[in-house]
Amino acid sequence: MPITAQPRHLLSRYDVTVVGAGPAGLAAAVAARDQGAERILMVDRDPEPGGILLQCIHSGFGLHEFKQDVTGPEYAHLALERVVERDVDVLTNTYVTDVSRELRVKLMSPDAGISTVDTGSLVIATGARERTRAAIKIPGERPAGVMTAGLAQKMVNLHGYLPGRRAVILGSGDIGLIMARRLTLEGVEVLGVFELLPFASGLGRNVVQCLHDFDIPLHLSTTVVDIHGHQRTDGVTVAPVDDDLQPQLDRSWDIDCDTLLLSIGLIPDAELARQLQLSLDPRTGGPVVSSTMETSLPGVFAAGNNLHVNDLADWVSQEASAAGAAAGDVALGRHRARQDVTVTPGRNVAYVVPHTLSTERSQTVSFRVKQPIYGDTKLHLGDAHQRKVRAVVPPEMVTMKVSPKLLDGFAGDTLRVDAIPVEEEEES
User: Fold this and answer.
1) 13-129+267-331, what's its fold?
2) Which CATH architecture has domain 132-264?
3) Chain segment 270-291, per-residue pLDDT in tens
4) Residues 6+ apart with CB under 8 A from 331
């Protein structure tokens, strides 16, 4: 039986309101309560808390957060137990229809109807959405059998339906890799995973465990250029791409299949951030935040995949804990840490989160590289800090712990984050 914590009655005012009950929302609510906030409301549009975790029935979760290897639903259960122990109000099957800049939240649910609550601070933990076929403009017909990998995961794991019998997967994101294995175990013939880029987009462990271990071919620098079929998909055309990622149609070939799964990346769900007119980072698609995960609107925080797409639910929880604790401090009128240092992506770095750092507290800087470096790599945080690592690749997020001592003397500066091959740095 699922754990629930539906409030007996909705209060008119809360210290902290958390929008989203996935791993980020669950961790933020717990941290806010532990920081001293007494009245906390967590809202989610799904019938049960847990978010995407509920359909991720594979293991690999919880190694950092709970020090044990668990499945997604088990991770959600452990996280929700913490929420229930702290007497947090959890309102499910409820939509947040509007939030004013004065932090008045309008809610709508079939049980409670339409209601409004005021809140001292707000944590946005709405997660991310999958890119669809329309986002990359694949030409061809529009038959049944074309869907995102996450939808297929929900169909198979939660509802017991197979999307087809012969599948092609476009994109090598983690969900696509995991679904290649899942479908194979269920008797579906997975004909191949096709990736536009010259390297896989998912974690290395998933490439090995989901593709190599099941003899599923991975075609790099290859994409789908046409979809065939009228009522139902009956095939696709794939082609290699050149160095400019343009398809070489003279080298294309057809594949007979009845299903095409799309695993072409996630987009932060920033609808609420746009409604609040928060500053957005065009590199991530999520809000611009400080080291406490506070956005450009005081009292509003963001964490998890709506801020930037993380590799692991454990990292989402850790990031959201920082946001929840800071939201609790703000609601109780405590001191905000000054944001003294600006950080910006530099050489071979796609983005950096957070966007500002404080010289008063310890914090974690997270970023991704643009291109893989398979040899020894030097990571630079301006002149404040540098660290040597064995290799960096775009699918795996890089983190750096930054203490106030490292930032001593850099107040008011802008520090660039660079990832440079050691041999190139030595030559220069």
Assistant:
1) FAD/NAD(P)-binding domain (3.50.50)
2) 3-Layer(bba) Sandwich (3.50)
3) 999 999 999 999 999 999 999 9
4) 15, 16, 32, 37, 119, 120, 121, 299
